Structures
1.
Amino acid sequence: MFLPTVAASPKLLLRRCLGVLQRVLCLFLQVYRWTRGGSEARVEGSPEERLRQGATTPTSVNYHFTRKCNYKCGFCFHTAKTSFVLPLEEAKRGLKLLKDSGMEKINFSGGEPFLHEKGDFLGKMVQYCKRDLQLPSVSIVSNGSMIKESWFHKYGDYLDILAVSCDSFDEATNQLIGRAQGRKSHIENLYKIRGWCQQYKVAFKLNSVVNTFNVDEDMTAHVTELNPVRWKVFQCLLIDGENAGEAALREAERFVISEERFQGFLDRHRNVSCLVPESNEKMRNSYLILDEYMRFLDCRRGRKDPSKSILDVGVKQAICFSGFDEKMFLMRGGKYVWSKADMKLEW
């Protein structure tokens, strides 16, 4: 009887040693996560924990339904890595899922959203969101180069806000940045679109990316004349795989500016009442971004890590992988008077 007991003892000892080793490894991994990204993990929790606690409400969503663009902005952080665009009915199904989950505002972007089907695909989605889903706010971000007055005539009633990107009021600077197409004047076109917005009762918004080529420019006079409802001023942001890194289609490192230079630009324009500044810190995690497959993109690690598509797993599960920082969204003024019916604008 003694021999089996002796034979069993090494096995028992081995199991105990393995158990201790497993606990040590778990402790090591926990410490490693804390030191490498622990504050993020402790504050936001894992996707599974966020799902148990209740998913974030997708109040405001940015749908980049196409990556194709006719401009070549050197700092672009959503580049033409694919030409895929969802069929319209599938896109509508996803938009309905978002509305049913609490979406109040949808922003269509790209790429250049007016490029696909000459803007008609975009117009049909805008019409669907406002007329059928009755969303409080429907907006678009565009470079403005493909917009025709006929689009406003057909779809303008369904659009709350049109944001046009303009990084400089000097044509040569726009050429350097890549925000241009041939010899067309980006600035003249911008003013033309501003007039159409006034005529067709669409709130006009201006977006600018501050970078090495425009950081010393004073845009006060032009912005004041254009009188947008908001002037979003972004600090040039690097995203691995998009505008930085080996797999990127852009090399944006030469466009990057320091926090100090960005603040200098803001100080120069401090008297522009519609200015809404967004530093890299504010911008990186405070947007709910859907890509062309309707996957939420997590930008916390300096790249775009996609969730599964909301068309496959639903909004509640997919949004837990978005890395969305709702507090920062509110701090940067992400929720504002965004329905043109409530803006009390003088048309």
Note: Confidence is low (pLDDT under 50) at residues 1-8, 18-44.
2.
Amino acid sequence: MRRLGSVQQKVPCVFLTEVRNEPSRKRDCQQFQVVATENVNPAALESDIHCAVATEKIDGTCCYVTTYKGEPYLWARLDRKPTKQADKRFKKHQYLQKTCKGFVWNVDEDFREVPESWIAAHRVQHENGHPVPDEHGHIPGWVPVDHTNKQYCWHTSVVNYDSAVALVLKTHGEDEGLLEIVSIPLADLMEQTLELIGTNVNGNPYGLGSKKYPVHVLVPHGVLRIRNPPPVDFQQLYSWFQECQEGRVEGIVWHCDDGTLIKIHRHHLGLKWPVGDSFLNTRPVVVHVDEKPDPDASEKDLFKSFSSINGKLFSCIQDIQFEP
């Protein structure tokens, strides 16, 4: 199986979009929403979207594995965002012009500071040696996940830097209908992007774990392929999300042969997310984690917890619980 594209930039919608003057279904404080038209995005056609690999869009927070201080490391997504005043100007322009394009930024003054270890994402444009924002007003980037930073405690729960491994949810090598949770060397994940999902991420749309015993895992982008994807047609996609069990997902990401990524989100079609009984929770999952945890590790150490149920098969990932 070829490695599919990594998520470094904002992924465009498969359809051309328009801004409507009504509250966003996706962001509570946003007084407009971006919706899909029925016109296929020319960028999707140029990348031969009809021959692309369709995969499930996973609702979590984006991560990246690359080198830090000479070792494979997990990095968290940290976009450099505008200050409040600059963002107000940008939102006003977007509201009045019905587009993000044409807004002029002062990069030195309009953007918040980021840690020294921050790096810009791949393909971010630079001017005079400095990264510049994309059309959405962000400068995509990454920051290394350190155990000393409590802001990233859920990220650090899925990596063990002493053993240089990560907890990953993927399809089973011999049965695509079966999921498995495994510990994978970080070196094997180099230059890949993944989605961190779990109890304390994005409102936990998949219902994983509990407050007392949280469950988190990394899901490599592109690993959950859609077996019977609908055609790239507005009405057929709308019906698929509404009527098919496999359509009970946040969205679709198409991985094109030229490396381009294209997506559709349920919100683009005016459909709600999350939904009960998501497709992810219809698939059985087996645990293959046999790590030797630090004897001084907390009872809530995820590697220790998953090792205690090594070899067990569950009807779905939501059924995995660590309560004694």
Note: The chain has a mean pLDDT of 90.
3.
Amino acid sequence: MTQNPVLAAAPLPTGFDVVRSTAASRAALGVSIVLVLLAASLPLWGESSWMREFVEIACYFIFAMMWNLLAGYGGMVSIGQQAFFGFGGYVMLMLGNFAGLNPFVAIPLGALAAGVIAVPVSYVAFRLSGGYFAIGTWVIAEVFRLSFANISAVGGGSGTTLTALRGIERATRESVTYWMALACVVAAVALVYLFLRSKRGLALLAIRDNEVAAESQGIPVARMKLAVYVVAAFGAGLAGALYFLGNLRISPDAAFSVNWTAFAIFMVVIGGIGRIEGPLVGALIFWALNKFLSDYGTWYLLGLGLLAIVVTIFFKQGLWGFAQQRWGWSLFPTQRVLVRGGMER
């Protein structure tokens, strides 16, 4: 039986070492731990509005991170990920309102349901490729929207309210929602980072670059693509369940709007596609623009479009990609670099 050369470890030349981290990444790890611990204490001293803003940013970031995993690393450009975003939100609401389950417990279950439903959906989506795949995923999302719009138990086209939180005090609800959002952000970054640093992550990049060549080297292309598609759906469902828990209301037009994927594409392109830091930078920029400029109506949308055009023309790899090329910044390095023994990066 031949060993997969992509996944196999090759012997190192004498006097060389494989370096997988940088001084910047090690410093970033320490700073990140301090920031997470500080952020975890926010409900003890911060204002409730700050927690709500963080939950919104967290949902943007997680959704953009999953789209980046799917398209930026997996090469599967989808404009229908809102199908799983809305599905996770609706499952969370139904488990809370109808099954009597604590909505906070229902959040990971909603995400799990989105990942499960992605398996049969993939049988349809993976029959298409390229632009047809992108349009096909959009059509699938519209099928989800129309299906939930015709379910009267969840309010039909007008939507419904999450009533399962009525017995929980507002301060407790906001604090727990915030802590769950923080935990979801940390988990999303950690899991995606560890996956991309693994041999499976290398295989995924090989599939993105050339499916035929990757398969000829023994990589199970179909299985890898399905796994990434399911994980991206799980993450999108997690973001949706978290978002509508904080919003307390859901409707088909809000849950399955194509704007969610459009916003994710904007965030990833602005920050830098195919980089873990990209969705984080893009989510912060998008939130700031949405926070301070949304009152300007159509001028706000024109500003988003103008910014996207400027970045794609002058910073083709996104703002973080430009910074990485110019100054060598890499907070989450996934590549392996061969250096002489004793040398530091």
Note: The radius of gyration is 21 Å.
4.
Amino acid sequence: MTEKTVTAAIVTYNRLPLLKESLAAVLAQNNYLSHVIVVDNLSTDGTKEYLDGLDDARIVVHHADENLGGAGGFNQAVRLFGEQLNDDFIWLMDDDTIPEPDTLSHLVEFTLEHPEVGFVNSQVRWGRVNGNPSWMNVTAPRPFTWQRYLMNSKEPAVEVVNATFVSVMFSREMVAMVGLPQKEYFIWGDDMEYTNRIADIKRGYMVMNSIAVHKSKENTKPGDIVAETDDSRLWRYNYEYRNRVLTARRISKKEMFKVISVAILRDWRKTLLRKNVTSRGKKLNIIMRGLWRGLFFNPAIEYVLGLKIAKTQSLRDSEMDLLD
């Protein structure tokens, strides 16, 4: 069998020291790596000059004309993978992701042993290899599957609902089926929505021995507006709540109502009633405005030029057929 090849993709914005560390770790992978796409979101810290000075045929650099946000950057990276390269898989990460030398090998080898897999992602640790889990990158196991992992600690992977774009890999075939990440999300939630699309066709798995380090500033829970104390970050939550609603809508109306209810009964209520909440009024407005915008937010899904094939039946539909 011909060895499979992988394109890694890193999206970066004004974090040159971390980008250098991430790129070095990616280029040091011990197997399967063929290309590395770096999408620079109009950085102003010398990133452009650094990337333009690299002399490695594996590296493909794209300088954006504007800051596309993380979502737009990953949209462009997957588009470049589909249109300009011929590798079998694409492996996505932020510029503060530092994979171990064998991180990619474990992802590929699990996928080759389990061809029914739609995507695979790594265990993500915060700050260092033996650090705590990176909470923003911990995704839920699929219901009614977790019991077998309690019974057998030697399971090579855990079936998960979705994944973040911090060391996640999927095939060219999946790109052809589900299209591109939703660039209109701009920031937050685009990875969940996209891996939901994949997992509706083929399931996703966290590969236990594939380890990546996430060097984010803080090890916070995702989208926790109540605990947020940095006023300069609040604009992000406008996208968080809007994007949550669309992601849920694309699953079902029931899921949409659940997401809206949780946002109001938990986040809005806690923001209103809990003591010592900073920027209380602004946060309350952001939650309600974001939820409202999400009801009408419905950008079209894009596909790679010349790379589109019909999806197989939805696994949700298959499961419903079994219940009928």
Note: The chain has eleven helices and nine strands.
